[in-house]
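Hi R.,

Here's the chain you asked about this morning:
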Amino acid sequence: MPINAEKIKHKKIHNGSYAVEALIYILVGLIALITLFPFIYIISASVSDPMEVTAGNVWFLPIGFSLKSYARVFTSASIIRAFFNSVFFTVVITFLNVINSMLAGNALSKHNLVFRKGIVLYILLPMYFSGGLIPSFIIMCKLNLYNTLGAIILPSIISIWNIILARTFISGLPSSLKEAAIIDGAGELKLFSSIILPLSKPMIAVLGLYTALAAWNSWFNYMIYLPKMTDWHPLQMYLTKVLIWGNLNATLQLGENVDPELIKNKLLMAAVSSQLKYTVMVVASVPIIAVYPFVQKYFIQGALLGSLKE
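And the predicted structure, written out as tokens:
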């Protein structure tokens, strides 16, 4: 019976492709496991028995079960205040930044704008060449913004990168729609609110996402410009104090709502304090992790918007 050479060759090719595909799946699975390991470890350490965490016995899955650290965090007035501070700054900065970026992008997208190229070059220079921290600090002091909320909000509502993205996206919108609206008697405000904004929903989502992530994770500016207004420090600032400065007791005000019997047991108290670091990290990360699956597609879309133009 003759051997079909083409069939054997086809079978070898398929067997080779299956082997390569299996290898790719194994490699991706290992990378995913390595990526997820820190998150799993932090969650496990936050719900494990405090003594096991202190002893270093927890390395992947929880050992025992305890929510004492969560109870301590959610009964701490400072942590609750810090969480709402983060929400406040994230919402305000995101809203103002997106509005500013869309307005500036719309203006710079007009080809008949006087000195358009010069203005674009002018706003691009600070994006590549920044004066640094010292000039910014001096400006804040000269403007009497030091130790005020304006030192955090005002610089954050302007993003050169977001303006460039918005300008490029608006420039790529169909000009026929804009011309039709102008013929119908629409002014600049009507054109922006009724035509450009509805068509720019993907761009608005991308700008909002990028700005919200940056605002939620920000802490350095609060340390520099709000040293005395500790009541307005966000959750990430408290997390920095816990992880870097080790100021856990002062940060979480562990003297509040603490069982006297627990205070007497210094060993258990130290164990719970050590576990609190992981609990605070979970509380600070959960909001962003919970939102991310719903907006993941905008990351890819945001990489394309502004970089391609038909």
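DSSP finds 16 helices and no strands in the chain.

Let me know if you need anything else.
M.
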